[in-house]
Design a protein that fits this description.
By secondary structure, the chain is mainly beta. It is built from two helices and eleven strands.
Length: about 130
């Protein structure tokens, strides 16, 4: 598959509503700011979508990696929302269920943030997590 250029992302543990997670229609949902940024990136690069995968890295075990991608691999899940495509690597699927992808900007940083209810712990910098 064609995937180039990796992005970093911050992970935040999301709180659960009581002892049960709310059912969602999609493995991953995007906030309006995430949709806007993904759309801008894909237009600038001329790519079909972003691929989310999980790599073993960092002090807490796992980290998300975002790459430009033009089509889904054999077992990838495809999330389409508001005109953007996110390809989810099959190895990342179980760690992403119920996750919200946001794009956050402040005076010092701008980054994608994954609000993930499955995260059991994160490192101090927020780049790696455990489930």
């Amino acid at each position: 598959f064609i995937c180039v250029m990796s992005f970093g992302a911050t992970v935040r543990a999301a709180t659960r509503a009581g002892s049960r997670l709310k059912a969602s229609r999609s493995v991953l949902t995007l906030t309006p700011s995430a949709v806007q940024k993904v759309s801008q990136l894909l237009t600038d690069k001329g790519s079909q979508g972003l691929k989310v995968s999980v790599k073993t890295r960092g002090c807490n075990g796992l980290t998300y990696v975002l790459d430009y991608c033009d089509y889904a691999a054999k077992f990838d899940e495809v999330v389409e929302q508001d005109g953007v495509k996110i390809f989810i690597d099959s190895k990342a699927l179980m760690t992403l269920i119920g996750t919200e992808m946001d794009y956050s900007t402040d005076k010092l940083t701008s980054e994608f943030v994954f609000n993930n209810p499955n995260v059991k712990g994160t490192c101090g910098c927020g780049e790696s997590f455990s489930v």
